[in-house]
Design a protein that fits this description.
heterodimer; A: about 375 residues; 4 domains; 15 helices; about 0% strand; B: about 240 residues; globular
Chain lengths: ~375, ~240
């Protein structure tokens, strides 16, 4: 395993351990000293985090099958979230067949395509094909009451719970370039001018070119770099610890930042919160919480930039994007819940918040994070 | 020691008696049924039944709520609203295993005896098949049910008769009243099944795995001298109240 991966996964393990210890300590405190509802909430959250952490860490261990395992686990989560969403959607009998397609065809297909790394298909399957198919199938069933209402909610459920959420495991398919884009470009330019032909392999490594991708090698070939050198780089590239580990760290980083951003926003809101943003939708979300949470999250994201393909500034920017999108997700799902008159998506499963309550911010942040990373920090051709 | 049904039949009554001792919890204890021709006692490990219970849980994602009522192996009649073919299987699966092995859902013979698979399934969840169309004087459904449970078993009934497509429950048929009248000692437990009509509505074959909720309410009994209609309305109200509980 790559050293950075060990550091990242281990560091989070330590943090989680510390958090668990704190919560256990608070739980043992006599009544009245602490806000028991708050402690219970954190206790519940920490349990979910342990689960997430073990899933991701286990996936790193079985690096050979990691992608398949992670994609499958995310499929299960997505399926469950969609189940919660549709359960709380007032569908009618005429929607039954369309829902059958949604659950048993589109949802698995989306994740299979991600497993197959077929970006061209998985990025359009739901927004184009499912989008057109659902209303047509509902119309075929012959019930026109609240027609557009029903089809739109089914489409929204599929988009949020499946399509958007599926971009999280899709991060694994990115061929992330570990040096950032500008440096790589400079190197490519140097290669073009053949200045580097005399460099030794260690000097190449210093330039960060050891983490160059396959298409870089092709580029070098075209630029007329000697075959010997390309072969050396190629060999060195094969010796890279785990080829997908940069992408796996990116996934870990993303999930971590989303979760941490929720906590920081909650904490800052509790401490400094005064101006509620939308009292009718979410009385707990305040401007102070959002801004303070964003600042803390950006600090942490910056501190973790070494594990990602981003430089410190970029890591801070990406963290900000995650915070803002995650916040939007939380607000949107709260609004839907208010409209349906429930507190949690998991009200049918007593004692737990639903899966959808846990992943709402991931759903909104994932596609944006994925596309930004794909466009600016990955080798798209590869 | 393992007994299969074939070897059992060839053994003497003494052997049979030893075999019925609850030596191994995995064998279904045969229920004392005075008229065993209704359903022969089965002594094999009910594999399909277990698979069915798991599938029912997976597909209907039910949550079980016991409101003012606790699971118990005492003799009961669970009566529920009926909206889906899945009702009987799901309600049966939602009971704890010890209770489940003593409980028989009452189901329509004409539906569950059509085709081999259905017959096998019905047998697996220990359904008591009642002929809706061909009711004889000496074979009244209520008598059949009481005979089938003897003095240990419990029943699951759907007093609405057929499956209901409307939001509102239809009127209860009088069977529940006669059950209560003939056996006043039975606990009548109201059960409300929420959302199952969306999992598998009438006329569909593929269940959509939504989440559902099953609520068990406080038992009721037939009051002394209570008129039939009053009792049936009270029972129906007991089920309906569970929806918002």
């Amino acid at each position: 395993m790559h050293l950075k991966t060990v550091l990242l996964v281990g560091g989070v393990l330590l943090l989680l351990g510390a958090a668990t210890a704190v919560v256990q300590f608070l739980k043992r405190q006599p009544e009245g000293g602490t806000d028991s509802a708050l402690v219970r909430l954190f206790d519940q959250r920490i349990r979910v985090w342990w689960m997430m952490w073990s899933i991701l860490a286990a996936a790193f261990l079985f690096s050979g099958a990691a992608k398949t395992v992670i994609v499958f686990l995310f499929f299960l989560l997505s399926f469950w979230a969609l189940r919660e969403f549709i359960t709380l959607t007032p569908t009618r009998r005429g929607d039954h067949r369309a829902l059958g397609w949604v659950f048993f065809c589109f949802t698995p297909a989306q994740f299979i395509l991600i497993g197959m790394d077929n970006y061209g298909m998985y990025s359009v399957l739901i927004p184009v094909y499912a989008f057109l198919f659902i209303p047509a199938r509902v119309a075929l069933a012959g019930d026109y009451k609240r027609f557009q209402d029903r089809t739109a909610t089914i489409q929204a459920g599929l988009m949020i719970c499946v399509y958007c959420f599926s971009y999280t495991p899709a991060l694994l398919t990115l061929d992330v370039v570990s040096v950032n884009h500008r440096e790589l470009k400079a190197i490519a330019e140097e290669i073009e001018t053949q200045e580097v032909e005399g460099l030794s392999i260690s000097e190449f490594s210093a330039l960060g070119i050891l983490q160059a991708t396959k298409s870089d090698l092709t580029k070098m070939d075209e630029a007329g770099v000697s075959e010997d050198l390309i072969e050396q780089i190629g060999v060195a590239q094969d010796e890279r610890p785990v080829s997908g580990s940069a992408a796996a760290r990116l996934l870990f980083f993303f999930v971590l930042i989303v979760q941490v951003s929720d906590v920081f926003q909650y904490g800052c809101g509790k401490l400094f919160g005064r101006r509620v943003i939308a009292p009718a939708i979410s009385p707990g979300k305040t401007w102070e919480g959002l801004i303070g949470g964003a600042a803390c999250t950006m600090l942490l994201g910056t501190a973790l930039h070494w594990a990602t393909p981003f430089n410190p500034w970029e890591a801070a920017g990406m963290s900000l994007v995650i915070v803002v999108m995650g916040f939007g997700g939380g607000m949107t799902m709260s609004a839907i819940k208010r409209d349906r008159g429930v507190r949690d998506y998991g009200t049918l499963v007593e004692g737990h918040g639903g899966v959808l309550d846990r992943i709402d911010s991931i759903c909104f942040a994932a596609p944006v994070f994925f596309h930004l990373t794909r466009y600016y920090f990955s080798d798209i051709a590869g | 020691m393992r007994y299969s049904q074939d070897t059992m039949n060839s053994r003497s009554l003494i052997h049979r008696a030893t075999a019925t001792l609850p030596a191994n919890g995995r064998w279904q204890r045969p229920i004392a049924r005075p008229f065993s021709h209704v359903h022969p006692p089965r002594l094999r490990w009910n594999m399909t039944g277990k698979v069915l219970a798991i599938l029912a849980k997976l597909f209907s994602g039910y949550t079980v709520r016991w409101i003012d009522c606790q699971p118990d192996t005492c003799q009961r009649v669970y009566f529920a609203n009926h909206t889906s073919h899945l009702d009987a299987v799901v309600l049966w699966s939602a009971l704890p295993p010890e209770v489940r092995s003593l409980t028989r859902p009452v189901a329509a013979k004409d539906y569950w005896e059509r085709g081999r698979l259905r017959r096998h399934l019905a047998e697996s969840f220990n359904a008591l098949l009642i002929d809706r169309k061909n009711i004889k004087v000496h074979q009244s459904p209520v008598d059949q049910m009481l005979r089938a449970i003897g003095d240990t078993g419990s029943l699951i009934v759907f007093p609405e008769g057929g499956r209901n497509t409307d939001e509102e429950m239809s009127k209860f048929k009088s069977g529940l009243y006669y059950l209560a009248k003939k056996r006043p000692d039975l606990e009548l437990v109201p059960v409300h099944m929420d959302n199952l009509n969306r999992v598998l509505p009438r006329g569909e074959f593929l269940p959509i795995p939504l989440l559902s909720c099953i609520s068990f309410g406080a038992p009721i009994w037939l009051e002394a001298g209570e008129p039939k209609l009053d009792f049936l309305n009270r029972a129906r109200e007991a089920v309906r109240r569970l929806k918002d509980a």
